[in-house]
Amino acid sequence: MNKKRKQHYVPRLYLRGWAVNNQIYTLRDKDIFLTALENVANKRDFYRLNPITKDGLQLIETFLKDIPPAVKEKFKELIDLLSVISNSFHSIKENINLDAVQKEADNLLNDLVENLYAQIEGDAIPYIENLRDGDANFWNNEDVFLDFVTFLCFQYTRTDCMRENALNSMPEKYKSSWGILRILIALSIIGKINYEYEDWTFELLNNRTTLPFITGGQPVINLCQVEGEEVKEMILYYPVSPKYAIIVSKKTETKGLVNRDIIDEQDADWYNKKIKEHSQGLLFSNDENTLLRYSS
Length: 296
Known about the structure:
By secondary structure, the chain is an alpha+beta fold.
């Protein structure tokens, strides 16, 4: 089995919301170009699991303790596997001479997390399609909303932008843990939303202005995150097409599903600027002129 070398940190199924004939307008390093979806938001072997240091393993164990019991139970096999697989398979590669076994171990290290994300994406496809049709009623179904929350939270932590920010803020001795830590952080957020489900608000934003929503290399952002400051609150914003976006937050004044029209272009522009702020110069749109607006 061949390795999956080109690994996307923003799924193509998501970016299709802005694509025309499988191509998308892209702003990267102030250059704007039209390209195929398969050419953007990916890196070679991006999800490959590497050996983890002793300090890194200790950090992982600390995060494991904080994951809610219900989430631990639901994702038990995944958590157990990720806790041991990286170092175990590197040991196999180094100590067993059978070429076939070594190749299989190497493929597994390279593709395991990629395959995990692909499965989560597949489960979320119906909900992404519903949102692009202006329908968010799945949020009211406690039996299915968790599939979408899982997709949303995994997308939040899986990107190159998140990786760079995390590694820049972590002591060197912990950096080897990020490949697994990004999954455990997502699981922690999933657990919090799931446990407090009735206290969370799901807003579907309907953009009725002439300025389309854009997206970027970090498509899920925390609107409360300010660079250099401690994050004390989480309000997740996620555009799903030029016309629709969602906000998932824990509000006291509203709960459950809320539909909100965006009628002022300044509001659409504010959300687009937030995406730009978090996406490290990588933006996507269905419209070249819209990207020109955010190119400086």
